Structure formats: structure tokens, C-alpha cells
Predict the 3D structure of the following.
Amino acid sequence: MAELSLNKTLILPENLIKECIAGNRESQERLYRYFSPKMFAICLRYANDYQSAEDILQEGFIKVFNHLDKYKASGSFEGWMKRIFINTSIEHYRKAVVTNRYVEIDSAYHVSYKGEDAVSCLSKKDLLGLIQQLPMGYRTVFNLYAIEGFTHREISQKLGISEGTSKSQLARARAMLQKMLKSTR
């Protein structure tokens, strides 16, 4: 059987997927080792801390292996996995909201965002560090909108919040990121 390619274009052998579905531990480990760094990066963007990101990673891979038979090979396998990890991160967010009795404040005040986008001038590592400092709601909306490309309507449906809340959370996240950036200069 062909090994997983480390090239930019990944062609996942059907046999490896079949072996994973059959419960072959070596194949599952190969799949895990290949994709875990990329999927962990996604988890880390949404998590409060490193340990939470590790928990999300494990939950995500459990889902991948439990639902591997549902992958239809009509699109990118990595894209299919990425959706699972984003959704697992969102579920983790929802659990934290319920646990912390977090209440969205939709109209307490409106933060407007104007001016130069300093966030785009940061390195990935610096940006990740700043994003992780955002409150959970801001961070989640920012990741879904600015990084994953979801619309406010899609975010509102995924998180169970209004579109207005999504927009205000994004504006507040951007404003907070701007303040953090200015204080680090």
C-alpha cells in the first residue's frame, strides 16, 4: 500500500481508509500521525488553552474514526476532517457556554471598527497568541468569520446566537485585537 504523501496535494489511498474502518490500529495511527498537526492547529485556534485543544483533538479524531465510513471521497479528505474539527470545536464552545452560564449581551453597546487592519500585519504565531487571549465568544466568532470564512448567518446558526451578536462579537474581537497589538508595540 502506498504511504501518505507529504506533498501539498494529498491522495489518501482507499485501502488505508478501509483498513481504518475495519479497526486496523496501525492504519489509524498513520492517519492520526499525518493529520494531527494540522487538526491541532484548528483546535488551538478555538480552545482556551493547550489542554483544551488536546481534548478537542482527541474528540475530533474519535468522531473521524467513528464516521469514516460516511466519507464519500467526493471531495478532499482533509477538508472533510477539517469540518469535523471545526464542528467539534464549536460543540466544545457550546458546552463551555452552558457550563459557565455565559450570557450574550447583544445590545449593551456597539463597537465600531475603523482604521487600518493591524491584524493583517502579524505573523501567524503572533496572531494565534493574540487570538487565544480573546474571550471565548469573541475568539470563536473571529475564527469562524475571519479564518474559516463563515457568514454571520452561518455563525449565528452554528452557535445559536443572533446575526447581530455575531457582528458585534466580531467588531469587539477586532477592536480588542487592535488594542492588544498597540500595547505590544
The helical segments are 14-21, 25-46, 50-67, 77-99, 124-133, 136-147, 152-159, 163-184. The CA atoms of residues 20 and 29 lie 9 Å apart.
